[in-house]
Write the structure tokens for this entry.
Amino acid sequence: MRKKIVAGNWKMNLDYGQAKNLLQDLIQNKDKFNKDTEVIICPSAPYLGVFAELTADHDWLKLGAQNSYFIDSGAFTGEISPTQLKSLQINYCLVGHSERRDVFDENYDLLSKKVKALINHDITPIFCCGEQLQVRNSNVYREFVMKQIEDSLFSLSATEIEKVVIAYEPIWAIGTGKTATAEQAQEIHGIIRARLIANYGEKIGNNVSILYGGSCKPDNAKELFAQADIDGGLIGGASLNAEDFCAISNSF
Ligand code: PEP
């Protein structure tokens, strides 16, 4: 059975003190979070070590990284390896967020290597995909998103793809306050699920969690999460507020 997931992408926000305060806020409110939901936070990389210690006794709260390279170690200044993440007990890692694709020119090939390396280290990749506004308006958005998924993920075996979480994040909805409607989101999630099933079979396709991301907030999460193929959310802005993040976890 696929997991229900709420993952917070803190991006490059919060100084160390603010980040620790937010973590404490989440921990103090742990009883209010949905017990049937996998709750994940992805703080900035320099905080992961201390956060791993602070969450060691909190199995309900998982840690994710926002990025990782695909090689284990070596002369790659500024990069973080999956081996290093694993040594901190990091369970998840974002891959292919639109900000990394756009600002840092990450392409299909690199993303596919990153996904594979994470799986090899038993870290769950949260693979992001989604179209720009002009692609949405040009009406080839379905094919565009499917190509992102096929190019970076469909070389994985059936056992590997089951270890991936997919996040559909229409770029025009990220940080804009302009959420996709539940119907718009479900349309793409449904297509992704159908292609997973066509490629890997019913059982595997139905086991992959597909999250929605893009201005997901407490007031729209319920409708989004009620859709057949939406298994939770990748949350940016609203994950920086403990109360909102908690409310989103209770929106299933
Ligand atoms: C994101 O960046 O992954 C995201 C979904 O951001 P926001 O919720 O702020 O739109």
